[in-house]
Amino acid sequence: MSRAAGVAPCGGPDPQARPDPIRRMRPGHAEVAQLETPQFEAPKPEAPRIEIAQVDSFEALGAEWRALEARAKPSFFQSWTWVGCLAEERFPDPVVLRATVGGQTLGLALCNRRRGRLCLTESGDAGLDAPFVEHNAPLLAPGLRPDVLPWLFRAAWSARGVRRLVLSGVPPAVATAAGGLAWRRQARAVPLVDLARVREAGGNWLASLSANTRYQLRRSAKHYGGPRLIRAATEAEALDGLAALATLHAERWRERGQPGAFATPWLQRFHRTLIGRGLGRGEVDLLRVVAGDGRAIGYLYNFRLGGRVSAYQSGLDLAGAGPQGKPGLTCHQLAIERALAEGDAVYDLLAGASRYKRSLANAESELMWVELVRPWSLAGLAVRLRAVIQARMQARMRPDPAQPTNSAA
Fold first, then answer.
1. Residue percentage of the chain with pLDDT more than 70
2. Which structural domain range is residue 52 located in?
3. Considering the domain boundaries, does residue 84 fall inside one?
4. CA geometry: angle at 218 spanning 216 and 223, to 5°?
5. Buried-most residue among 15, 146, 151, 290 (CB within 10 A)?
């Protein structure tokens, strides 16, 4: 069961601007926040109850999550396929945030407490969080009041022992709604192919690319003698493909002096389990691309949900590519064309502005990785002081408009 918690003044709306809606409960009871509609505002949908509770059963939470997922429009990383994968191991001190109206769940967020941090859909342990999360956010039903998200985070700040919130791979609006001050902040571009835009323009995706990219794709396709894309039809085929992908992936990353995304037994077990959970639901694709002579060019490990294809990992035969082969471009070209043919809305190349991603993309979004602290904590004061020092340094570096400049006569 959950424990009682106080209310942090920094999460969500300014507590001085309206009555505090979070009621303290007796120990041993769920932490409940009843949102009150201010009398001066126009009528809104019924205000939800916000509950903070420890997770007693991941099985029960999974059933509740799937029911809400059917109503919401989640990213794959908000689905129970991802969130619930090995959840008992990934979330040793789990906390669920829940928004309900009339007893019906309309919002959920699974977090983990670790060393004073509350981490959204992560554990806070680098090893357990090595499966990289993106498009992360609380799962919300459509049509909720716009203030539900900030009040969810305000309740999160009130969880026992929490001094910081860690939000990885969230949209900027989610980071803003969480309140607090950014102790650590990173914004990353997310190149993507807007397939709806391609269809509106006549359906020719290649025509939207630069002349150089089109040339590279044509030359690579010719080099490989008519490459084909093959989707794993069974779990056994997908696991064989994952093993081959991981081998090629590791070779590439070893050359860079880094371990890669499948370097530990935990990571390998996580992704094998994820394939077992998602393949039958049509949410995981293991794609093999072969040349005209049948040899493998590369493998793609993609997620699919709600018309969005997320290109998560790849393994490419770079040694056999030669000077004209572009296995990465060729593999993604075939996957994008398949997504276009199957009616998907977006082919998401995920975070990281790599050159090859931007050469294939026709649009871009942004995701944030932030660690937030309370504004009036020692860490918050340090953030404020750092901002003041940086502002003063930048002001000193600006040219003085009163000083004459060297200009041609």
1. 86
2. 22-179
3. yes
4. 95
5. 151
